[in-house]
Amino acid sequence: MDLLTYPFMLRALAGALIIGLAAPALGIYLVQRRLSLIGDGIGHVALTGVGVGLLTHQSPVLTAVLVSVAGAVAVELVRERGRTSGDLALALLFYGGIAGGVVLVGLSDDASNASLMQYLFGSLITTSPADIAVIAGLGAAVLIAMLVFRPALFALCNDEEYARVSGLPVRTLNLLLAVTTAITVTIAMRTVGLLLVSALMVVPVAAAQQITRGFRSTMAVAMLIGICAAGAGVVLAGSIDTAPGATTVLIALAAFLLTTAAGALWHRRRATPAAHVEPPDVVLHA
Amino acid sequence: MSVVEVRHLAAGYDGREILRDVDLSVASGDVVAILGANGSGKSTLVRTILGLVPVRRGEIELFGTPQRRFRHWERVGYVPQRLGAGSGVPATVGEVVASGRLARRGMFRPPGAADRAAVHEALAAVGLVDRIGDPVSTLSGGQQQRTLIARALAGKPDLLVLDEPTAGVDAASQEAFAGALTEFAANGGTILLVLHELGPLRPLIGRAVVVHQGRIAHEGVPPEPAGHHAEPGHDHVHPHADEEKATICEWAPTEGTKAY
Ligand SMILES: Nc1ncnc2c1ncn2[C@@H]1O[C@H](COP(=O)(O)OP(=O)(O)O)[C@@H](O)[C@H]1O
Ligand SMILES: [Mg+2]
Asked: Ligand 2 mean position to B28 CA, how many Å?
């Protein structure tokens, strides 16, 4: 593990662990609401923010946060209206986001392909000490919000109309989810990359729910899978020199295959004896 | 005291007006059934009362407060027609029922012993305590419906609003249902429920309101099953019902859909 003696590796690892914990804690609500792909869409929009940052010589993380929060709020307002045009509006926003990002990055002084690839797929060496402070602060804020408001967010994502009749501030909670999605996407951009960020929100949740029965246990197991996959992903990527985001996502997918197999095995075990014990209620004689 | 007061209400979706000039008054302790054919506007009426469909004209009061300014949602328990769309992640029966405590507890306070006790009590009332740790998706349709009732009961409301709680529900669940509602009413609770047919809930219902094409077509004691009419003395035709709609009094409740 002499790799971990390098400060940049330690920073990348710290960033990945925070994101590995925060992304599934938020992602579980998106999955519950069947918005699994929203993080991906916001990632597209964040690229425009990166382009704005590079072009104007501001911090790309900061501009990406601002642009993706604006994008996420716009998406939420479209979703709230619930009209059929919503799907199309989202598509336009996402494609506009990625096209705008590619063009703006190309116009900037830092127009190399390498710089674009860093943001799209993540990189181990780009996380500066200032970045890690931002990632830690925002990541902790997302995590705390997701845990503290779990009962309310669960009620909201499980049955929005019921939440409304319960007197919950539905709109505020929806905007909270939109804003935290945008923040998570942006802080994960450095290590995981914008194109794979959503995988870290969704895959650990999908893996966890193969072996869990309730929401709380799914959240706990998903966070565990997320932090393990992110940590292992960064270390492995460092030692075999692969992209950290892609490595992390492959590890999370391996966890999904493992839990799916375990879940299937467990269900078969439970189902088999019952089939023998229970006699039929009615026996028909021909 | 009046629990629900609806006056000259008009409501609908987008460009379409569904409810027109609806009046309804539910007093404390009343058990009122809303009957009518599919698509007549029953769900729209209760959803408008709960603030889920915007009011176009007219007024709604809940517990004497105009609905727009009403804040005591812990006094209202809502049982929707079916489980909400969000079910991408497993949730246990206990977790779903626990969300019924939020209105009373507020979203900033973590759940405590009183919340857990109320969840147990509500599950006991619908006969599902032994399923508390099971994923909702493993329950039958009737048991899921009972879970939703338990969620509403867990908040210890004064008013229960139910939208076709017995549609497509097995006999055991129907009975568990009737039992839970009878107990709720016996303790002074007010019930407003949409029904497709009176069924086993018939003895509980004090008054029936018939919705037809977005208007109240008839209001009175519930019609007797098997084609017997309610006594004419207790019947009154709503002032807004015209000749054609008045004939709806003639139906037997189980034939509601076939009547038109
Ligand atoms: N969300 C909605 N958007 C648009 N129209 C709706 C919506 N919900 C119901 N409707 C329409 O309103 C009318 C009344 O529906 P509803 O109140 O659900 O009837 P019921 O509950 O009596 O079967 C129907 O014509 C239905 O198509
Ligand atoms: Mg209905």
From this structure: 24
- Give all domains of chain A, ordered by start, each with its CATH number: 2-265 (1.10.3470.10)
Q: What is the pLDDT of residues B162-172, one digit of tens each?
A: 999 877 778 88
Give, as one character, the DSSP assignment of residue B111.
Answer: P
Site to substitute for ligand 1 among B34, B43, B56, B162, most atoms within 8 A of C-beta:
B43
Chain A residues in contact with chain B using a Cβ-Cβ cutoff of 8 Å: 28, 31-34, 36, 148-149, 151-152, 154-155, 157-169, 205, 209, 212-216, 218
Q: Which protein residue's CA is at the shortest distance from atom 27 of ligand 1?
A: B39
* Domain regions of chain B by residue span: 2-223, 225-260
Q: What is the CA radius of gyration of chain B?
A: 18
In this structure, CATH architecture of domain B2-223: 3-Layer(aba) Sandwich (3.40)
pTM for this model (two decimals): 0.87
Confidence of residue A227 (pLDDT cuts 50, 70, 90): very high
Helix axes of A113-121 and A38-56: crossing angle, nearest 10 degrees: 150
- Phi, psi angle pair for B58, to nearest 5°: 90, -175
Instruction: Report which secondary-structure segment, H or E, holds B76.
Output: strand B76-79
Q: What percent of chain A has pLDDT over 90?
A: 56
Atom of ligand 1 nearest to the CA of B14: 4
